[in-house]
Amino acid sequence: MVAENRFRLLNTEREVSAAEDWNRDSWERLWLYNLHYFDDLVADGAERRVHWHRNLIGRWISENPPARGVGWEPYPTSLRIVNWVKWSWRGHALDEPGVHSLAIQARWLDRRLEFHLLGNHLWANAKALVFAGAFFDGFEPDRWLQRGLELIRRELAEQILPDGAHFELSPMYHAIVLEDLLDLAQLAKIAPGLIPAPDAERFRALAGRMLEWLVSMTHPDGEPAFFNDTAIGVAPSLSELTDYAIRLGILPPPDELAALRLLPDSGYARLDAGTASLIADVGRIGPDYLPGHAHADCLSFELSINGRRVLVNAGISTYEMGEERQWQRGTAAHNTVVVDEADSSEVWSGFRVARRARPLEAACAREGNTLLLKAAHTGYRRLPGRVCHRRRWALSAAQLVVSDFLTGHFDHAVARFRLHPDFNLTARSDRDGRIQGPGISVTWRASGPVRVVDETWHPGFNRSLPCQVIELPLTEATSELLLNWE
Predict the structure, then answer these.
(1) How far apart are CA 31 and CA 9, in angstroms?
(2) If 0-12 CB within 10 Å is exposed, 13-18 middle and 19+ buried, where does residue 27 land?
(3) For residue 352, what are the β-bridge partners?
(4) How far does Cα 390 stand from its chain's mean position?
């Protein structure tokens, strides 16, 4: 909240002064969802806005009658229940209308759990039932608590992979679910006896494993790599989550992790050499039955040098269905190879995927001072030429070589490499030149003539920054890009 009735959500600021503003058709649905979350009740500096918050809760109750509007959908209801409970427990007791409304919301949610969506939605529903059950006394709240815990147990087994990743394979949603898990661990501490001890221990153990996975998926700038639906400023950062875990007595990941990490269950890899960090997608797009946040990004990667992102995937700026959402999920928005202008997985609508790329042959090794990673995928085998894409990365302290190989028949294929907006490419010829940015100079050399196109990078919702993309054709089914830096 930036004023009593004004909100800055998803990088867009709006006035919410009339009852109809809670459900305006002309405003993005995700923005309205965020409006109904009430996240500002537990945001930084919230103590300075308590009077605003109390008035806002009263407004919401009077202007959002039960079962009417966006705010009563199960997902925003779930997040709002948790935030109202947290706010009350932090010393801002809800008044009688607030308590009454909270009970109605919990009862409404209990009858509308999102089993049809599963994933992070059902998880959020379960967490809200646990918090509502802990807040109230009585037979019905006890049932909410037990039902929520049963769902949490089931979904932890389903949604948290053995390598610590959240199964939707988005670093952003992973961080959101990790914060939820830390909240449950804290609830077990402040309300002893409500959460069984084995559950509390499981929350803490899984949180540690999830933190370590997030370390591998975070750039040196402290923000997540852009794979699947991921943006900056939506989920807590790695440092914030680590601080939260430490306050709960959960040991953080070790300061030094292996320089070469292949995460077998989630299908990501990280290579660290000198000041360079490379994060690559060498796995599947996500669970077969839940591809809503998946992108066609197989064998894409991001690169940081000296703490700065140099090569980046395009990111996301919208969940609204349309050409922009379709493009941002497509293969051309990622640092990988596009064959005959097709996506490696058939993303469609806003949150759908048809035929999907399957990973092959992911492996890593060390040769002297060079870290090697190789992988392949089947996404283009559905094309008439039955194409298979193989990629090899070789990273050392001052060099990266990316080699691509195609088998099968195709008309046109191009490897795309997107530069962060802070970097600009200059060409000495159509096969070599220099990439320069703040304090970093990289020479590049390509196996064939490249084309540089102007496109965009999207670090967050409703944000778009100009950037350059290197396009390197695969002549005779191969290509190689070599980068050197000091």
Answers:
(1) 6
(2) middle
(3) 348
(4) 26
The stretch 21-35 carries a mean pLDDT of 97
Q: Calculate the alpha carbon distances from 329 to 315, 351, 427 in Å.
A: 9, 9, 29
Q: Residue 486 — pLDDT band, cuts 50, 70, 90?
A: confident
With H, G, I as helix, E, B as strand and everything else as coil, classify residue 265.
coil
**CA 356, CA 344: separation in Å to the nearest integer?**
7
Asked whether residue 256 carries a pLDDT value surpassing 90, the answer given is: no
Query: Could you tell me if 413 and 406 are in contact, meaning their C-beta atoms sit under 8 angstroms apart?
Result: yes
Integer Cα distance of 29 and 13 in angstroms: 14
Report d(CA 178, CA 175) in Å as an integer.
5
Neighbours of 137 (CB within 10 A): 9
Question: Looking up tokens 């459900």, which residue turns up?
Answer: 23
Could you give the CA distance from residue 31 to residue 234 in angstroms, rounded to a whole number?
12
- Rg over alpha carbons for the chain, rounded to the nearest Å, is 24
Using an 8 Å Cβ cutoff, are 302 and 309 in contact? yes
Task: Determine the residue type at 456.
Answer: T
Which pLDDT belongs to residue 345?
Answer: 97
Work out the burial of residue 363: count CB atoms within 10 Å of its CB; fewer than 13 is exposed, 13-18 middle, 19 or more buried. Answer: exposed
pLDDT grade for 192, boundaries at 50, 70 and 90? confident
Report long-range pairs for 96-104 (Cβ below 8 Å, ≥24 apart): 97/58, 97/61, 98/57, 98/58, 98/61, 101/61, 102/132, 102/135, 103/132, 103/136, 104/66
Q: Which of 453, 7, 9 is nearest to 231 (CA)?
A: 9
What are residue 259's phi and psi, to 5 degrees? -70, -20
